[in-house]
Specification:
- It holds the Pfam family adh_short.
- With about 240 residues, the protein is of the alpha/beta class.
- It has a single domain, classed as 3-Layer(aba) Sandwich (Rossmann fold).
- Helix content is about 40%, strand content about 15%.
- The protein contains eight helices and nine strands.
- It has a seven-stranded parallel sheet, sandwiched between helices. A two-stranded parallel ribbon has the order 7-8.
- The chain is globular and about 50 Å long.
- The structure holds NADP nicotinamide-adenine-dinucleotide phosphate.
């Protein structure tokens, strides 16, 4: 059995950064199933107690969707109340030129996997009227240095709007766009934000604002300083 609690929640990319902060925030109140590309024994100590874990590498979009559905079935869940498709990656591009490999990986991991997973998870979400949340980025409007990343997040925004109108109340769909956040993502991407990093939000605060936005089921929203300064990390609906 996966922990105890009221809602059955899946979070992808939950062994690090924002996803892990969200999992820690929700653990104890809800039953959690987390996923990532690292084997369980490498990250088990990081995960909240009682959370289940599925190995799902999103560089194979279809394979990752099948792994999620198989893992959910394997622990005996027949529904999901929330799916938070958070896993993502990026690569710093020199002069705005991404390598072919970086383009393919970024689009597969950030967008292709999200499309395949959303479609595969639909029946499980529909059973409980569960909410599907995509984690985009403020970069979806365009951002220097990360063109393929920005394109993948813009794609997620369009995907969320399309599914929201298609699935209606059966499965509410939303896309949340965090601003710069203190995680290891920038190091992994080969990008050094320098002194700007001091201005990045803490992942715990972003996770708190994200949880409230998920509970609200609103179609989209930005998770950034503007929201934080009006108390967004401490107010809002509780998931
Ligand atoms: N940090 C920011 O400033 C920021 C701003 C806007 C939006 N976001 C978005 O927020 C989400 C979380 O990012 P983060 O900052 O928390 O980054 P992070 O700390 O690097 O966490 C990203 C998660 O995604 C996983 N992941 C990466 N590639 C994967 C793959 N091929 N298959 C499965 N999982 C994979 C990572 O696993 P590994 O640990 O194995 O790498 C990790 O668990 C991402 O979608 C990101 O684009 C972040």
């Amino acid at each position: 059995m996966i922990g105890a609690g009221s809602r059955q929640i899946l979070i992808t990319g939950a062994n690090a950064g924002i996803g892990l902060a969200l999992a820690k925030k929700l653990s104890g109140r809800h039953r959690l199933l987390l996923s990532g590309r690292k084997p369980h024994d490498e990250i088990a100590d990081l995960l909240p107690q009682g959370a289940g874990y599925i190995l799902a590498d999103q560089s194979d979009p279809e394979g990752s969707a099948q792994a999620l559905v198989g893992g959910i079935d394997g622990i005996g869940w027949d529904r999901l109340d929330n799916a938070v498709l958070n896993a993502g990656t990026g690569f710093a591009a020199v002069d705005g030129i991404d390598s072919t490999d970086a383009i393919r990986q970024t689009l597969d991991i950030n967008l292709g996997a999200a499309i395949a997973q959303a479609q595969a998870l639909y029946p499980l979400l529909e059973k409980s009227g569960g909410t599907l949340t995509f984690i985009g980025s403020v970069a979806h409007k365009g951002s220097a240095m990360v063109p393929a990343y920005a394109a993948s997040k813009a794609g997620l925004h369009g995907l969320a709007r399309a599914l929201r109108s298609e699935w209606g109340r059966r499965v509410p769909v939303q896309v949340l766009h965090p601003g710069p956040t203190k995680t290891d993502m920038h190091d992994k991407a080969g990008y050094d934000p320098g002194r700007m990093r001091a201005l990045f939000l803490a992942s715990d605060d972003v996770a708190a604002m994200m949880a409230a936005a998920i509970a609200s089921r609103r179609s989209s929203g930005t998770i950034s300083w503007a929201r934080y300064l009006v108390g967004g990390a401490f107010t809002g609906r509780r998931l």
